[in-house]
């Protein structure tokens, strides 16, 4: 009874905070609501007996990624009004992509089966002798190692896209040009000036 009560509590706060992430206008508040969502998801993982996933979610995502996002949002001078200005123009494309993702998720959930070829043929030890962390590691790095690597590539592409979207070159800032520095010679790098005695440079 108590576990069911905590499950509904965590689930309700998780859904509410997720809705606030996508509906709030302040990006800093959106990041804070996302941190709250992660904490409640960690609570659900603990109720399911996956304490390792719960701690990873809190330590990695809340303690590192979301705090980094918060500092980036607060420090970068990003005009969110300009980003939202073209929202209506690209909304049909976004809805199309969203419906495609929804169709794929429904198809995957409806047709999900465990392929016999992916299951390890080694005998499984009793569940009482295998820790949660070891079972997750053996499954992730043996049967699904290629999918794990593909997920890493997807995150890398997302990171490069985020950097490309937020990178702005200002014309009034003097930047370093490595090619010009390497191509310099003593004639262009040094200027010999003959100063008369008793007079300084002006």
- Overall CATH class of the largest domain: Mainly Alpha
Number of strands: 0
CATH topology of the largest domain: Four Helix Bundle (Hemerythrin (Met), subunit A)
Q: Give the class from helix and strand content and strand pairing.
A: mainly alpha
Q: Which series of helices and strands comes N to C? A: HHHHHHHHH
Number of folding domains?
A: 2
- The CATH architecture category of the largest domain equals Up-down Bundle
Please give the count of helices. Answer: 9
Give the N-to-C terminal Cα separation.
Answer: 86 Å
Question: What's the story with the biggest beta sheet?
Answer: none
Question: Could you tell me the radius of gyration in angstroms?
Answer: 27 Å
Transmembrane segments: 6-23, 30-48, 54-78, 90-115, 144-167
Protein name: NADH-quinone oxidoreductase subunit J
Membrane topology: Multi-pass membrane protein
Catalytic activity: a quinone + NADH + 5 H(+)(in) = a quinol + NAD(+) + 4 H(+)(out)
């Amino acid at each position: 009874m108590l576990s069911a009560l905590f499950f509904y509590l965590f689930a309700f706060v998780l859904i509410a905070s997720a809705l606030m992430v996508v509906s709030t206008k302040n990006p800093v508040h959106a990041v804070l609501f996302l941190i709250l969502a992660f904490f409640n998801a960690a609570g659900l993982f603990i109720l399911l007996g996956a304490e390792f996933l719960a701690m990873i979610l809190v330590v990695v995502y809340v303690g590192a990624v979301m705090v980094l996002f918060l500092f980036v949002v607060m420090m970068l001078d990003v005009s969110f009004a300009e980003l939202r200005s073209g929202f209506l123009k690209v909304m049909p494309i976004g809805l199309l992509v969203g419906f495609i993702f929804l169709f794929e998720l429904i198809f995957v959930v409806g047709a999900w089966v465990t392929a016999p070829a992916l299951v390890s043929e080694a005998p499984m030890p009793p569940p009482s002798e295998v820790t949660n962390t070891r079972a997750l590691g053996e499954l992730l790095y043996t049967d699904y190692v290629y999918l794990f690597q593909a997920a890493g590539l997807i995150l890398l592409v997302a990171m490069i896209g985020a950097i490309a979207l937020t990178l702005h070159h200002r014309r009034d800032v003097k930047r370093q040009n490595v090619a010009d520095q390497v191509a310099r010679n003593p004639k262009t790098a040094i200027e010999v000036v003959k100063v008369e005695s008793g007079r300084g440079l002006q």
